[in-house]
Amino acid sequence: MCGIVGYAGNRNGADIVLAGLRALEYRGYDSAGLVTFTSQKTIEAVKRKGNVDELEKAIKKRKLIGATTLGHTRWATHGEPSETNAHPHTDAAGRVFVVHNGIIENHKELRAYLEARGHVFVSETDTECVAHLIAEFISRGADFESALFSALAKIEGSYAFAIIDRENPDTIYAARLSSPLVIGVGEHENFLASDPSALIESTKRVIYLKDREVATITKSKITTTDLNRRLTPMNIEELEWDLEAAQKGNFPHFMLKEIFEGPEVVRTAMRGRLKKNVLKLGGLDLVRDKLDSMRRLVILACGTSYYAGLVGEYIFEEIAGIPTEVHFASEFRYRNEPFEPGTVALAISQSGETADTLAALKKAKEAKLLTLGLVNVVGSSIARETDAGIYNHAGPEVGVASTKAFLSQLTVLTMMALSLARKKQKINRELMDELQRIPEKIEAVLKQAEAMKRLAAKYSAYENFLFLGRRYNYPVALEGALKLKEISYLHAEGYGAGEMKHGPLAMISPEFPTIAVVPKNSVSEKMYSNIEEIRARKGPVLAIASEGDKKIASIADDVFYIPKTLEPLEPLLAVIPLQLFAYYIGTALGYNVDRPRNLAKSVTVE
Ligand code: M6R
């Protein structure tokens, strides 16, 4: 995810900003850049693809020493990772320099308008239009600050901006909406960052910028205003974190932090794509004709991404009316199946680098199938190999156990199915509305994390677990078992509940608990029967059930309630308690849940 660092003071800003960017490296990035005012009061920008070391080498080579400085680490969203797309971005005259975190939803419209006005763009980014837009207002006679506020009024989406103006060498301007920015208060110097971890080396006194606030920062003065240029109150707070803690925010582990990012990743996946009843998936536009005549969808993935694909199979068949099958990429690549014309392959991968998924994709390409990608890491191998696709924009996932990426994958798969739906059904419109309510419902689930912690403490005494679900929640059961295995090294099996009496029932005993995913839906009566069968064999049952379900408490030992939603969206809520269950059992047993033994975040070997 992108990072911003700024400095206003008398010291060498490049050194301070580089140190700040290094503190943000844990967030993941693919290029870095910096702009500074030199002692001769000229302004210079340096950008490099790759890491902060590359940027530092370039700065040293140019002997760049300056005071007011902005730096940025970019995690590509619009446009591939490259020096041209790295921040800062500037206008044609090189007057306004902008670094940005977030997504400008109306960047295409702004770009078209500005190009028609003669502005020449050099990058593929959404950010560049901000520098041109401010320059446009200046060219019409506005002073810099008025131009900045006029530009902000035109921008839709989410942003944390840090901006400098060649004509105001002592000042940094900052603005935020739905993307964090924090000002560091120093002695005769001040700082800016997108994350407090970049400030801790320099100061612990901070002001958190609020949504729709604009800050003006010099070495001796900080002011904040609203978007109507009225002064807003500033509250200086004291940071109590050490560096490692700051990177994780208030969370003890990345895994928990990433579980709690669930509502935000679902919102981000929808941002600029789904609003009210309008759904636009620009990433599929180029191949829309071929998708309209698609006869079969083949989903290729591994691990958690495979389980997201299994949920996708139900959604594509029921909502889009498209026959769909899901394959472990590691199996698909060695099969010799015939492909009928009109088959489309969809590779799902958080990292975009999983060797088996990449190999399966290559096989699909050799068979001349149209290939799509659902990938989190922009510019990754799978993203580059596919004909078209959609990015998750979930931000880097640091914990080896995939959590937030799964939620993001389910969100995008639902939008894809809705966008490809062959017939208009009432449920499709209902799904669009309900998907937009899901982030709040996830927040409601997360509020009960302490209750899950207590349940996990109770169940951490067991060594074997069965996870059961049906239909949309069958893949959720599989994912719950995978999470527990990875994080706690306990034996866990996921099953479709109907399969239980074909074998797994033999294992049930008072020592072998079952986690039953049983929201109130078209198959809950069948699930109740399965739970009764387990209870008859004295197996303990923890149920993940819908709020208001009166029956479940009488047949399960423990119940964790989740809000009601439409059946295809249940996995987005039901998986959260299972992620928390694995996390709390893993930590109760004293394991390193962020880096489980024997596992790697990106599996680049076969
Ligand atoms: O990066 P990918 O989504 O392609 O990774 C696939 C699997 O390696 C990954 O989901 C793995 O199973 C995780 N450790 C699950 O938590």
Order of neighbouring strands in the sheet with most strands: 3-2-4-1-10-9-11-14
Q: Count of DSSP helices?
A: 20
Distance between the termini: 28 Å
Give the strand tally.
26
Low-pLDDT stretches: none
**Overall body shape:** globular
Average predicted confidence as pLDDT: 93
Rg: 26 Å
Beta content: 15-25%
State the major sheet: 8 strands, antiparallel
What do you see in this structure?
It is a single chain. With 606 residues, the chain is an alpha/beta fold. The chain has 20 helices and 26 strands. The strands form five sheets. It has an eight-stranded antiparallel beta sheet with strand order 3-2-4-1-10-9-11-14, covered by helices on one side. A six-stranded antiparallel beta sheet has the order 5-6-7-8-12-13. A hairpin with a 4-residue loop joins β9 and β10 (190-193). The radius of gyration is 26 Å and the shape is globular. The mean pLDDT is 93. The structure holds 5-amino-5-deoxy-1-O-phosphono-D-mannitol. 5-amino-5-deoxy-1-O-phosphono-D-mannitol (M6R) binds next to α10.
Give a short summary of the structure:
The protein has 606 residues and is of the alpha/beta class.
Q: Which secondary structure elements does this structure contain, and how are they paired or packed?
A:
Layout: E1 3-8, H1 13-23, E2 31-38, E3 43-49, H2 52-61, E4 66-74, E5 89-90, E6 96-104, H3 107-116, H4 128-139, H5 144-154, E7 157-165, E8 172-177, E9 182-185, E10 190-193, E11 205-208, E12 213-217, E13 222-226, E14 237-238, H6 243-247, H7 254-260, H8 262-270, E15 274-275, E16 278-279, H9 288-292, E17 296-301, H10 303-320, E18 324-328, H11 329-332, E19 343-349, H12 355-366, E20 370-375, H13 381-385, E21 388-391, H14 404-420, H15 426-446, H16 449-459, E22 464-469, H17 474-488, E23 491-496, E24 514-518, H18 524-536, E25 541-546, H19 552-555, E26 558-562, H20 570-588
Parallel strand pairs: 17-18, 17-19, 19-20, 20-21, 22-23, 22-24, 24-25, 25-26
Antiparallel strand pairs: 1-4, 1-10, 2-3, 2-4, 5-6, 6-7, 7-8, 8-12, 9-10, 9-11, 11-14, 12-13, 15-16
The structure holds 5-amino-5-deoxy-1-O-phosphono-D-mannitol (M6R).
